[in-house]
Amino acid sequence: xxxxxxxxxxxxxxxxxxxxxxxxxxxxxxxxxxxxxxxxxxxxxxxxxxxxxxxxxxxxxxxxxxxxxxxxxxxxxxxxxxxxxxxxxxxxxxxxxxxxxxxxxxxxxxxxxxxxxxxxxxxxxxxxxxxxxxxxxxxxxxxxxxxxxxxxxxxxxxxxxxxxxxxxxxxxxxxxxxxxxxxxxxxxxxxxxxxxxxxxxxxxxxxxxxxxxxxxxxxxxxxxxxxxxxxxxxxxxxxxxxxxxxxxxxxxxxxxxxxxxxxxxxxxxxxxxxxxxxxxxxxxxxxxxxxxxxxxxxxxxxxxxxxxxxxxxxxxxxxxxxxxx
Length: 325
Ligand code: UT7
Hints:
Elements: E1 2-11, E2 15-18, H1 19-23, H2 30-37, E3 41-44, H3 51-66, E4 75-79, H4 90-98, E5 104-108, H5 114-127, E6 133-141, H6 151-154, E7 159-169, E8 174-182, E9 190-191, H7 203-207, E10 214-215, H8 217-238, E11 248-251, H9 256-265, H10 277-280, H11 287-297, E12 306-313, E13 317-324
Parallel strand pairs: 4-5, 4-6, 11-12
Antiparallel strand pairs: 1-7, 2-3, 6-7, 8-13, 9-10, 12-13
Helix pairs in contact: 3-4, 8-9
The protein binds oxa(dethia)-CoA (UT7).
Oxa(dethia)-CoA binds next to α2, α6, α8 and β12.
């Protein structure tokens, strides 16, 4: 049994925030943002649009593509760190929105690696024979946890959602492997200090900007490049493959310089690496499924293509996966 992708979907909010818009908000400029990150613009959710709304639309598109009804879905697992509420799981709200009444649903908190963590859980579930169909979603409203006065972080992130529908099938097409890692020793290099149970909500905390994302960017950068390279090599080795076998490298889209460094270290050529960070910025758990849907809807996947995915994020968490399309 193998978990095969039978549908993809994505949703990006309409509102575009360009680098030039950001120049009017914080002390930054288009040249710096492009040179250091490769980002030109990002999407921002409307005031009345939440993570569950975006996730629902992405999931509906994946179901439509596959011609599968919501009642047929057995499991919904969603990578997100910007759920509608601290709890319950936003995947449950998506389940209700879809009318997926036979599915159990939960969120995975693994920041930018959330989609790959969710993919691994869904693949294990389907290959165990417990269910037939699973929706794997990555959805984030990063704009809601970004400090819009902090130029070190606010230029980097965007909002969006992506989803894939997996089906348990016989054969050799589907998720071939997942390798996942964590290291909590680094949790405070990239995190949201408040308001969880350690630092509960307070007026003083708001003034100290505790409910907003904090990152030590250049520390994260170095560890991200090392970890993404190592975990991608591990995936290739485990499958008896080399870089030349990879049709598409679909990495988490955090920063163009990270993608270029990892592509080079893996001895991949630029044409193998999919890049859309210029259009959407870092949408955390949503970047990989959004990218998969973009490639798929452009008709650029062929049966048998080997897709290498890798992600790194807060926790720290990181991982890789290979899919045979
Ligand atoms: O998604 C999961 C994980 N996240 C990542 O992988 C992100 C990893 N980190 C990065 O992408 C990069 O570290 C950044 C893009 C965040 C920063 O790039 P950098 O080359 O590491 O720059 P830096 O932090 O070393 O800062 C260089 C300078 C500083 O000025 P000084 O101290 O040299 O005078 C910053 O204050 O650039 C300044 N700076 C800015 N200038 C204009 C920082 N942000 C901005 C800005 N506009 N937006």
